[in-house]
Amino acid sequence: MSPTSAPVKIAVLGCGTVGTQVVRLLLEQASDLAARVGAPVELSGIYVRDTTTPRDAAVPVDALTSDAQALVDSSDVVVEVMGGIEPARTLILRALERGSAVVTANKALLAQGGAELYEAADAAGADLYYEAAVAGAIPIVRPVRESLAGDRVTRILGVVNGTTNYVLDEMTTKGLDYDAVVAEAQRLGYAEADPTADVGGHDAAAKAAILASLAFHQRVGIDDVYCEGITAVTADDIAAATETGRVIKLLAVAEQTDAGVSVRVHPTLVPRDHPLAGVRGAFNAVFVEAEAAGELMFYGQGAGGVPTASAVLGDIVSVARHKAGGGKGPRESNYARLEVLPMSAAMTRYAVRMSVPDRPGVLAAVATIFASHGVGIESVRQMPGKGHAGLILSTHRARESALSATVEDLRSTDAVNEVWSVLRIEGEL
Ligand SMILES: NC(=O)C1=CN([C@@H]2O[C@H](COP(=O)(O)OP(=O)(O)OC[C@H]3O[C@@H](n4cnc5c(N)ncnc54)[C@H](O)[C@@H]3O)[C@@H](O)[C@H]2O)C=CC1
Ligand SMILES: N[C@@H](CC=O)C(=O)O
Ligand code: NA
Fold it and tell me: Which residue range or ranges hold the ACT domain (predicted)?
């Protein structure tokens, strides 16, 4: 490091699960970080609501401030780990407008108001980095944004929410109660401040929007993403999945086809021998298919304060290097003009689980309904009950609109007592 290098001043906004670990690592690793950056990396302050709240011993009390604007205005790099839309948005814009680099973990803000932030960064020639916003510690933003920038990404398939993966995994393997597992995910620091963002699928949808924007070089916002969470998944769904050699995962799917771009998040049946089925606990995994690269898989800890802080620190080093030695990170790539398709146009496979009367001719009647909508049946599994039979019909690839029309007819025929659930299938040939 040159003895004349001016320190790079880092402001941290928010001191919760992630912020605490960012501060700890910044201070503990200060000398290594300085050597990697080429200049001292200095914590200029930590913005909190209340400076008197007791905090982790790693957080220096004299660095706490409740004056966010003054802190932002006196820093070279602003690290936003508060979450939420405001005041995060205003403070990030303020930082970017004065040419400061911004590192954020805030996928909700990026997926909702990203355009405004990217434009402000571009106008000021400032860095905007957000590796922690997608799949926690896993390097996925940088690979898609930079390493694959010369390729054509066609599909991304991922487990990108640690909380829901943890919940589904605990319910599947230990038969634990849904509410108890969600509470544990909160205690472990996996869940969002409001865990309905996790279980409702919105957190995964925000990540899917960010990944799709990067992969397909155009803006895809949260409103473009079809989103279904795990709240309707029942113990019976999990048992039926096990029965058919599958597991249920909340998957984010982003695909580019000739017709356009399709981005969706929903509970999905994955065959037990598929690598995504083996993603346990709060771990995440992202498959990327690109024309030249072929299939790539990224795997690691998708949630939790310490792993997420690793991704934040990596971004801090990148932007601090630019501050110390010159240079700048990539601008937003937003030139493509593909149509973002509605969910009704999505193509996938389905498992329809239903109860039918235990009498002859029922199966033929059900098959006729599927055929009338052009939905091919790949397999039928029967599970006998008292006076009725449980059926699981797995389909060939079909259009979502055709499947919806099929289910509507199934619900109105007397050949079916009840349609219990409809789950999409990915990863099976
Ligand atoms: N916890 C995790 O595993 C991950 C979290 N993230 C993201 O990182 C960000 C932070 O998440 P966590 O640390 O888990 O949340 P958290 O709720 O533990 O921490 C946020 C902190 O910011 C503070 N804060 C919120 N609004 C504020 C305001 N207006 N003024 C001052 N302080 C304010 C809160 O009091 C809290 O201490 C969020 O955007 C989240 O989506 C991203 C990846 C993983
Ligand atoms: N709540 C999120 C945290 C990381 O993004 C999750 O559970 O994945
Ligand atoms: Na990441």
Answer: 351-427
Q: Are 247 and 426 within 8 A, CB to CB?
A: no
pLDDT at position 4 is 57
Say yes or no to pLDDT of 385 above 90. no
Could you tell me what percent of the chain has a pLDDT over 90? 94
**Domains along the chain?**
8-136+306-325 (3.40.50.720), 141-302 (3.30.360.10), 343-425 (3.30.70.260)
Q: How far apart are CA 291 and CA 294, in angstroms?
A: 6
Query: In this structure, are residues 227 and 281 in contact, taking their beta carbons and an 8 Å threshold?
Result: no
Amino acid at 400: E
**Which atom of ligand 2 is least distant from the CA of 107?**
5
Mode of pairing for the β-strands spanning 388-395 and 347-357: antiparallel
- Tell me how far apart the alpha carbons of residues 29 and 52 are, in angstroms, rounded to a whole number: 26
Q: Is the CB of 105 under 6 A from ligand 1?
A: yes
pLDDT band at residue 389 under the 50/70/90 scheme: confident
CA–centroid distance, residue 388 to ligand 3 (Å): 48
81 lines ligand 1 (CB under 6 A): yes
Q: Which ligand is nearest to the CA of 299?
A: 3
Residue 192 CB–ligand 1 contact under 6 Å: yes
Query: Rounded distance, CA 69 to CA 13, Å?
Result: 10
